[in-house]
Amino acid sequence: TQLLEQSPQFLSIQEGENLTVYCNSSSVFSSLQWYRQEPGEGPVLLVTVVTGGEVKKLKRLTFQFGDARKDSSLHITAAQPGDTGLYLCAGAPSGYALNFGKGTSLLVTP
Amino acid sequence: DTAVSQTPKYLVTQMGNDKSIKCEQNLGHDTMYWYKQDSKKFLKIMFSYNNKELIINETVPNRFSPKSPDKAHLNLHINSLELGDSAVYFCASSQFAGGPSDTQYFGPGTRLTVL
User: Tell me: the pLDDT tens digits for A43-63?
Assistant: First the structure.
């Protein structure tokens, strides 16, 4: 099993602050995905990064795939309470089901 | 319209009982999955079906048996429930059988509590 390590595990910040979440592996992935899960719901896909060095932006969220395709980061600018949730990175080493990281639980307080 | 639905949303039962969780997707997808999310929020694949055929069967006790009567449905039956089975179980579906362009859509989860 190709492991995905996420850090930090928990993050509590105030509205308006910036933050970065990391997803690291010792293995190479053909692509990595980022999901957000809100309490009582299933994960929802935010983005898929495919090319090493790729940067994708989704409003205030910036996703980067490492050059060696072993790591990825998620940066949130000016966090808002609506960004609160569990952020999960995931990769599909065999092309089928996803291996998930253990998640970063983000709390943004007004 | 709900894309991936699961029933029940909550399930509380005694140790030793047998229970089933149902999942349906109306997206026309070929592949469906069962994931287990433990108390620490770790999400782990259990099974995957592609066009009603089992393609992934992770190290899961034999007490867990998936059944796919058709492409739109994937049910999970659990025999002789144990305390350690308490978790949230998520069903998901995707158009293909993986790959970078394949997006998985998750259901709302079934919270199973074994007493």
Answer: 999 999 999 999 999 999 999
